[in-house]
Design goal:
- The protein has three domains: 131 residues; 126 residues, no CATH class; 149 residues, Leucine-rich repeat, LRR (right-handed beta-alpha superhelix).
- The chain is mainly alpha-helical.
- The chain is built from 18 helices and seven strands.
- Strands 1-2-3-4-5-6-7 form a seven-stranded mixed beta sheet.
- The radius of gyration is 39 Å and the shape is elongated.
- The chain binds heme C.
- Heme C (HEC) binds next to α7 and α9.
Length: 451
């Protein structure tokens, strides 16, 4: 009951302050613009100072109640408070001096008027900042950018999204900017100190700051997601959290509020992933092996020696380091395979279709570190035995064995190639049942088997 009354009186302060402002301005105007003052003018001016003092006193009283119960940044409120008090004191002194008919010299009078104006401006400005927010004065000018709250990630941070942590890089900077001025070791309003991770989780007088896994029971989340005019909305002063900051906080708490939660976890949640991509400029797509691969181009001499020897080739990337290599004759020899060993790092796609390839030849393909696509279809001499040579191709994702003589045992080898995504087994000796079993065991591999 009492606190509500105090709150009510406190809220009258912004209304009442306009009285002393209006009265003192009028009083100063009369003093300055009426040159030859008779006694009645002097009396009006004295009265003006009295009403300035009286209404100022009233405003200060309500202001004091508001300052004690509303929550403001100490730096703003103390300047406002003390310049307000100085203003009221000054108007009291001026009124008393005029009342006892103290004669003001002209320079003295001018200085008094000047100081009064200064105090009025200082008090008014900081009061305005507290009620309307910092920047309130200039923010609506056409060339001033509106202050919206965003986490700024540097270019280099954005490019290494894989190593960013949700708490450290996205949440802590926001809480530091918006909460820690009032929630730190020295000044922990509500008993809440947010500067240390553990004490933030633990919370203040009313319970857990963060309840891991449950944002809606976490006071910190609840307080920032209240409507802005709610009595308990945080921060009570300054720029509120933006939508994406609140959403990131919610997602983080939902996922266990771990200190070391990688930003890449957002890949599991398309909504958050999009939000992080749009709001923070993060690139969270999963990179393929090739996107991360940096290679030196093959030399001109190397290319020349290959081209002459029955191959055609083209580059797959603008940096001219990834090769798509195709054998063009109808009978391959061991020396043709030896010939391409010198550029084996650069061979990304390899096409050895219908060229009488056999198991012995395949052993020369066992060490092509960046080979991702291998086409050896229509080579009936290739069997399960030769396929064994391929099991160490760490980055092979597509393999075409259509029209070779591989049988069920080849599936043992193929199952070991972790990177495999697509497999063509049509027209081989592998049985439909073995294929069905393989599919069940390796759902990540797309098997094309004709029927
Ligand atoms: C201008 C000072 C100020 C700022 C800035 C501020 N708070 Fe507060 N906060 C307070 C005061 C005063 C209290 C105690 C009164 C109350 O509970 O409303 C409080 C209480 C709280 C409580 C309740 C603690 C408890 O257990 O009772 C939480 C949670 C909280 N603040 C979170 C935040 C968060 C999150 C931010 C930043 C987004 C923030 N605060 C920014 C002043 C501030």
């Amino acid at each position: 009951m009492l606190t509500e009354l105090v709150d009510f009186l406190g809220s009258l302060h912004p209304l009442i302050v306009h009285l002393p402002i209006g009265i003192v301005l009028l009083t100063l105007a009369i003093d300055v613009f009426i040159r030859n003052k008779n006694n009645s003018v002097h009396r009006v001016i004295t009265m003006g100072w009295f009403f300035t003092f009286f209404s100022g006193l009233l405003a200060s009283f309500f202001g004091w109640l508001l300052g004690d119960n509303g929550y403001y940044f100490e730096s703003q409120i103390s300047i406002h408070r003390w310049s307000g008090i100085a203003f009221v004191s000054l108007s009291f002194i001026v009124w008393i001096l005029r009342y006892i008919n103290f004669r003001f010299s002209k320079p003295f009078n001018r200085s008094i008027n000047l100081i009064t104006m200064l105090l009025l401006m200082i008090t008014g400005h900081f009061g305005g900042e507290m009620t309307h927010g910092q920047n309130y004065l200039l923010e609506n000018l056409p060339y001033v950018e509106k202050e919206i709250s965003v986490v700024k990630l540097s270019e280099s941070e954005r490019s290494k999204a894989d190593s960013l942590m949700v708490y450290e890089d996205l949440i802590h900077p926001v809480l530091e900017e918006k909460c820690m001025a009032c929630h730190n070791q020295n000044q922990a309003y509500g008993g809440l100190n947010m500067t240390a991770f553990e004490s933030m989780i633990k919370g203040g007088n009313s319970g857990a700051g963060i309840q891991k896994g449950n944002p809606y029971k976490s006071l910190i989340y609840k307080r920032v997601s209240f409507p802005q005019d709610h009595l308990k909305f945080m921060p009570p002063a300054g720029v509120p959290l933006s939508y994406d900051q609140v959403a990131t906080l919610e997602w983080w708490i939902d996922n266990g509020a771990k200190k070391q939660m990688p930003v890449t976890l957002a890949r599991k949640d398309p909504k958050i992933q999009r939000l992080l991509e749009l709001q923070y400029g993060l690139d969270l797509r999963e990179k393929t092996y090739l996107e991360t691969l940096i290679l030196a181009s093959p030399t001109l001499d190397q290319l020349k020696s290959i081209e002459e020897k029955k191959y055609i080739w083209r580059f797959l990337n603008p940096e001219q380091s990834f090769l798509d290599l195709k054998f063009t004759k109808n009978q391959i020899k061991t020396k043709d395979l030896l010939n391409i060993q010198q550029i084996k790092k650069n061979v990304i796609w390899l096409n050895l279709v219908d060229c009488m390839l056999n198991d012995g030849h395949l052993s020369f393909l066992s060490d092509f570190p960046n080979l991702t696509r291998l086409k050896i279809q229509k080579n009936p001499s290739v069997t399960s035995k030769g396929i064994k040579a391929l099991k160490n191709l760490e980055n092979l994702s597509e393999l075409n064995l259509y029209g070779t003589s591989v049988n069920n045992t080849a599936l043992m080898t193929l199952g070991q190639i972790q990177s495999l995504k697509k497999l063509f087994l049509w027209n081989t000796r592998i049985t439909p049942k073995a294929i069905a079993d393989f599919r069940a065991q390796h759902p990540e591999i797309e098997v094309v088997s004709g029927l």
